[in-house]
Amino acid sequence: MAKYLIKRILLAVLTVLIICAITFFTMHAVPGGPFNREKALSEATIAALNARYGLDKPLPEQFLLYMKGILHGDFGVSLKNGREITAIIGEAFPTSAKLGVAAMIVALILGTVFGSTAALMRNKLPDRLIVFFSTLFTAVPSFVLASLLLLVFCIQLGWIPVWSTTNQNYVLPVISLAAYPMAYVTRLSKTSMLDALSQDYIRTARAKGVSRFKMIFKHALRNSLIPVITYAGPQIAYIITGSMVVETIFTIGGLGSKFVSAINNRDYTLIMATTIFLATLMVVANVICDLLYKLVDPRIKYD
Predict the structure, then answer these.
(1) Which residues contact 116 (CB under 8 A, 6 or more apart)?
(2) Between vectors from CA 138 to CA 125 and to CA 249, what angle results, nearest 5°?
(3) d(C-alpha 138, C-alpha 130), whole Å
(4) What is d(CA 119, CA 109) in angstroms, rounded to the nearest whole number?
């Protein structure tokens, strides 16, 4: 177990380093720069700004200096407003985390319940309704659903304010973000549950007179959760920091909207910091999910 964990951590670190390198060199390969504006600055001013932020050095040297700063916990400052990157992420991330975690909890709980129900009532009306709506939500992008919810519940009906400082403002964004992963988890849960119900140990439990409730929730459901856990790991990390479009539609100042703003402004340091932050969340979530397999199925061995 310890050997496996060390290998996964080393692989995670290597993955983050590769993502950093790809993002850094791709970002600098795009024409333009962070100091390009509608009202052009003089060449002397741009040269002075590049020298101040180290953008006048060769790209390999810039990359090494940036990675050295990261190892010391220094993500630099924004090239647009001069604020510390850690302060910007510290302010924006709690909003995105609150929104993303709530959406993922809703998606996992409802998706597992709907998927299990569809499997237990296969080819009946509830199964067909669940399959229909899960297919529908899988096909509808989150920004389309967010726009429809905003139009109907905020503008037409006026049930929910377009913006408020209460938790009521998170209802529609959570629904928008949870719809697709809920539909996907529903399909995964149904397939896994049908497979679990066809296994020999379920037939043996049924033959021994084990109650239907215990057979489903202790045996079948537990073993059908492995594909859901596999999907949930990276999806949790993605939905926390990848809700940029939904945050923009509902005017929620989270990390996603900061990332969009950084791309539009060519704010190199903020783009790099948010990318590294997302990549780190992804690899950590994957490692945690791999460790959770053992809790769900004790038969799994780590080599």
Answers:
(1) 189, 190, 193, 216, 221, 224
(2) 125
(3) 12
(4) 16
Q: What residues form DSSP beta bridges with 141?
A: none
Nearest to 69 by CA among 273, 280, 271, 283: 273
C-alpha dist (Å) from residue 14 to 7, 21, 100, 138, 239: 11, 11, 26, 33, 23
In whole angstroms, what is the distance from residue 54 CA to residue 48 CA? Answer: 10
- DSSP state string for 248-266: HHTT--SHHHHHHHHHHHT
Express each pLDDT in 192-225 by its tens digit. Answer: 888 877 777 777 777 777 777 777 776 677 777 7
**What span, in angstroms and rounded, lies between the C-alpha atoms of 101 and 178?**
10
pLDDT digits (tens, 9 = 90+) for 144-164: 888 888 888 877 777 776 655
Q: What is the pTM of this model?
A: 0.73
For residue 243, give the nearest of 259, 256, 232 by alpha carbon.
Answer: 256
Is 269 in contact with 75 (CB distance < 8 Å)?
yes
DSSP 77: B
